[in-house]
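Schema walkthrough. Field components (list of strings):
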Amino acid sequence: MEAVASNRSDAAEIERSLQHPECFAVIYDRYAGEIHRYAARRLDLAAADDIVAEVFLAAFRCRARYDTDQACARPWLYGITTKLISRLRRSEGRMYRALARTGVDPVVELDTDRVANDVTAAAASRQLAAALARLTDGDRHVLLLFAWADLRYDEIATALSIPIGTVRSRLHRARAGVREALGDTNPLDPMGARDT
Amino acid sequence: MNDLDTLRAMRADVPPPRQDVLARGRARLLDEATRPRWNRPRQGGWRAVALAVAATVVVILGVGGTASVLLPLPPPGQGDRVGTTPTPTPTPTPTSTPSPTRTRSSSSGAVKSLLARAQQAAARATPGADPANARYFYVKEVLRASGTGVDAEADEMTAEFWFLADTGRTGARGRFHAEYETGHVKDVVRKNGQTVVTENGQRVDHPTQPVKAFRDDPDPSLWWPTFDTVASVPTNAADMLNFAGHWGSTRPFEGGDFTTLVGLLYHPALRPEHRAAVYGAFRQAADESNFSLAPDVVDAAGRPGIGIVFDPGHQQRTLILDKDSYEFLGYEMANEGRGLDLSVASVEHRLTDSLEKQP
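Field assembly_structure (string):
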């Protein structure tokens, strides 16, 4: 794969791609890896393989509507990714329920050198998976864009086209659900301290 | 470590994408980016053509319903008939359960034989009347949907469209008329530059989202190719496959390619030689892709037919043909896990001089 280096902002590259469509490959090179990683965490590797291509094709097709005041395209791309994941939300829900039930995560292999930690981590994953399965789609999108994609509140608002206040309230609600699922204690905390 | 830290640790060790996966995605992007503009899917993909138009309008105008009543067809003989699919059989009731459970034959020979017969039948068909300005293409479809494709409440509807047969424009559309399974009726009429929406005969304020489908001017974001475009599609199978986006050497035949070809079959202006080329393209794709036969399928309008199933792995697509005449009946998309996504039956299309059934 031949990556194209560029110092221009995402917005500049997207604008340039309107006249020179092949320039959009720069955006792909910058973000395909992290979009794949995010999709794999939310679904599985096979689904991520498909989604990463679909995200950039969808972005390419609607690039004329990109708001070039937004220098960074990450929120936009995560918004598209979220929409595509939404179409598979039943698969995602099924995956979380299976993980909660069995504790076996098809995406992440256990590291045998860290068995003790992994057993604890697996227990946390089961609780988290159960919590994620119970969240509404909207709450889950906000929570995972915040925790896994490291988007800021304003970036999540942009990605999902919702007010920033809604981001805050959804995140608050989702975190409360997660904390409740963890029993208000953190299984990864060696002291088992309550985390409030 | 708080709840967010715990969540951040979940699946943090997900493996990085394989380089061949990233390279393939990049190649697909560049394939589309460097493709001639005429052969590039429009925004959102006009490839899905009629069914996408219908689904879009359902989304924009959607209302709910729960009862299950299929509407009768209008009496025959209205307008110049340019194409009418076989009369629907009232039973059996179309199913919304997933197609994967139905009996299927995986014989490539049987699939190609059926497509060859469809190709021959299409080539022998009599061309319809040429469209002219100031006339309308009347299109009638029955849609069944579930999941996220269309308003979850509106899982069955009959939709009628009147497209202005202005050969150079895309979006000139006079009227949309929908009857939902609850008996709810919705009409959108574009007249004198105004869009008027009525529900059950009562004029209503329009939703906040503009109905682009009813613009007077060409709208490049619409999912319907111009009649000029349809008149210029290839007449041989290999070029038709290329037109659908399957450029052979660069990537395998995909669901989007399948939908593009089916979308042309819905188009009321598609001429017999082009229709035959579409079936020829399917035959060529069947050489290399996972096609199978479903001998007993029912389209969204309740008509029994035979299905040609393309299953790329995540979303199964089925082209439904009449068992005897091999005429195109409809199309459906289904997912192994969640069942039917969308099924659209092409019930009727013909030329007409006026917008009928004015509200």
